[in-house]
Specification:
single chain, 11 helices, 193 residues, Endonuclease III, domain 1, mainly alpha, two-stranded parallel sheet
């Protein structure tokens, strides 16, 4: 039986997310936007709650095509507030639209959202070596810097803790525990620069 990080438990959806996505480096702007939205939606909720709503989010937000979401207006906000398949929180919905607009500005300046984000880890995944969940920090100096800069640029729902969870999910940091089978697989699949 494979040893996994304890946080994923035995829920099949959680296990699949742990085994196939969490900690795998992501460089696609659309996918990075999706994960930023989902991590922001999680604020105050459990990750499994958001994970179960993921397909609904993809449908509701045009599969996270940044250019489309950036053009959403008040009518779209009202439509989304009526969608029981997502977290119906006005601030989170409005922040998704605002963040899409900010991503477009970042793309203009940096070439891609990915280039901007990955600069916070010198374009190479940080390889942690945690032995227990209790050791894993809620934030780091890198997530603090990312949060501060994103807030300065007008992004919302990007506190340091959200930024760190985001960094873990998109593989900017490999926080699989040392006894987790994915800990050694990920660097082999996506070697650092």
């Amino acid at each position: 039986m494979k040893k996994r990080c304890g946080w994923c438990g035995s829920d099949p959806l959680y296990v699949e997310y742990h085994d196939k996505e969490w900690g795998v480096p992501v460089f696609d702007d659309r996918k990075l936007f999706e994960m930023l939205v989902l991590e922001g939606a999680q604020a105050g909720l459990s990750w499994i709650t958001v994970l179960r709503k993921r397909e609904n989010y993809q449908k509701a937000f045009d599969d996270f095509v940044v250019e489309k979401v950036a053009r959403y207006n008040n009518k779209d906000v009202e439509r989304l507030l009526g969608n029981a398949g997502i977290v119906r929180n006005r601030l989170k919905i409005e922040s998704t639209i605002r963040n899409a607009q900010n991503i477009l500005a970042v793309q203009d300046k940096h070439g891609s959202f990915s280039d901007f984000l990955w600069s916070f880890v010198d374009n190479s995944p940080i390889q942690s070596a945690w032995h227990s969940l209790a050791e894993v920090p809620a934030s780091t100096k890198e997530s603090e810097l990312m949060s501060k800069e994103m807030k300065r640029l007008g992004f919302r729902f990007v506190g340091s803790t959200i930024c760190y969870a985001f960094m873990q999910s998109v593989g900017m940091v490999n926080d699989h525990l040392t006894d987790c089978y994915r800990r050694q697989e990920i660097p082999r699949l996506f070697p650092p620069n």
